């Protein structure tokens, strides 16, 4: 398990005496925070991602990677409804069971939401062009 540790998280781990215990675990590797592209690459290659981040929930859905969100709710419900995300209570036995299920091939098979096709800019530009053409005909473009 690779754990990119945010500085605030590292401070909390140290404050509660967990930093050394986690660093000594043979199957856990604590690393410094990663840049976006490096982190994205890790997610692409992951068997499963555990997170509490809304952005990571979206990215794993877009990548088709199973995601376990360790929270009771999400501000990204579409990732649970049709994506690869599953909400899991912060209970060690439940987390272990969900990870084991994913690793055994019983992970959530989601799909990428329809409008997550990378063409948002094209759709926005088309709407703006139609709006501009309509306003130009009315002579109000300069006032917009």
Do you know the CATH topology of the largest domain?
Rossmann fold
**What is the average of the pLDDT values?**
91
Tell me the overall shape: elongated
**Overall tally of domains:** 2
Corresponding CATH superfamily of the largest domain: Glycogen Phosphorylase B
| Tally of DSSP helical segments | 7
The Cα radius of gyration reads 21 Å
Q: What sequence of helices (H) and strands (E) makes up the elements?
A: EHHEHEHEHEHH
Structure explained in plain terms:
The chain has 144 residues and is mainly α. 51% of the residues lie in helices and 10% in strands. The protein has helices spanning 7-15, 19-23, 36-45, 54-63, 77-81, 92-106, 120-138; strands spanning 2-4, 29-31, 49-51, 67-69, 85-87. The strands form two sheets. It has a three-stranded parallel sheet with strand order 3-4-5, with helices on both faces. The mean pLDDT is 91.
List keywords for this structure.
Rossmann fold, elongated, 3-stranded parallel beta sheet, 144 residues, mainly alpha, 51% helix
Give the structure's gist in a few sentences.
This protein has 144 residues and is mainly alpha-helical.
Write the SSE topology:
Layout: E1 2-4, H1 7-15, H2 19-23, E2 29-31, H3 36-45, E3 49-51, H4 54-63, E4 67-69, H5 77-81, E5 85-87, H6 92-106, H7 120-138
Parallel strand pairs: 1-2, 3-4, 4-5
């Amino acid at each position: 398990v690779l754990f990119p540790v945010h500085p605030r998280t590292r401070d909390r781990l140290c404050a509660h005496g967990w930093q050394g215990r986690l660093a000594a675990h043979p199957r856990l590797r604590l690393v410094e925070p990663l840049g976006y592209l490096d982190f994205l690459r890790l997610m692409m290659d992951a068997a499963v991602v555990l997170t509490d981040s809304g952005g990571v929930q979206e990215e794993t859905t877009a990548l088709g990677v199973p995601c376990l969100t360790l929270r009771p709710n999400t501000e990204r419900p579409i990732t649970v409804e049709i994506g690869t995300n599953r909400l899991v209570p912060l209970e060690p036995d439940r987390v272990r069971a969900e990870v084991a299920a994913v690793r055994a091939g019983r992970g959530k098979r989601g799909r990428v939401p329809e409008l997550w096709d990378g063409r948002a800019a094209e759709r926005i530009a088309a709407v703006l062009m139609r709006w501009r053409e309509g306003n130009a005909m009315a002579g109000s473009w300069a006032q917009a």
